Amino acid sequence: MSNKIRINLMRYRPDEDEKPWAQPFEIEWTQDMSILDALDLLKGDFDPTIAYRWSCRMEVCGSCGMVVNGEPRLACSTFVREFADVGEITIGALDQFPIEKDLVVDLDPFINKLNAVSPFIITKNPRALAEKEYLQTPQQLAKFKQYTMCINCMLCYQACPQIGINADFLGPAAIALAQRYNLDNRDQGDKQRFSALNDENGVWPCTFVGACSNVCPKHVDPAGAIQQAKAAAVPYWAASMVTKDKKEA
Length: 249
Description:
Its EC number is 1.3.5.1. By secondary structure, this protein is of the alpha+beta class.
């Protein structure tokens, strides 16, 4: 088997290009070479202007999300050897987000959605430091622990068909993180979060395709979280309908 492979890198320079285009390269690969390693090789040996994000190299930071041969993947944990039989790899940006340059995308739309669900513990009566920490049993932690594993890599947004139809949809990661806090026994902010979750662009556009859960590198189940949030949102939705009817009457 040849140790050479073709890489089609999707390039985009906003001051020059109307849309992304593929630039071909041929490299020699090794068994332990990741897609991120391949990008480093391209940047170091072929073109120093190639732009992409990375940080930890350990599937922790979520920075290196991109599309590899049509699938949302993390570049640090996807290996060139997986595509040896195919003979070529196409690497592109997570284009459900605005592309800033090459593989770098603008994550402000997600940050705004995340802020909308107040992703932090909200308490009505905060404890003084002298009262020490809030205690939590293993059973209480287990209710939401998987959602704490989200690394905000945005692979779920790339996979989500609803995001492709409606860019204003709150989306898998934001809703999963909202559910993480709603299930936390220390939190009392569910009513505040459901103002966003019950919005027309909140939980309801999700059709439970499940693609978001399938691509999650940390095995979080955002599709399940969205269905849980839908069930929990019904009382708030019903209350809003009663209030609306009273106002109209």
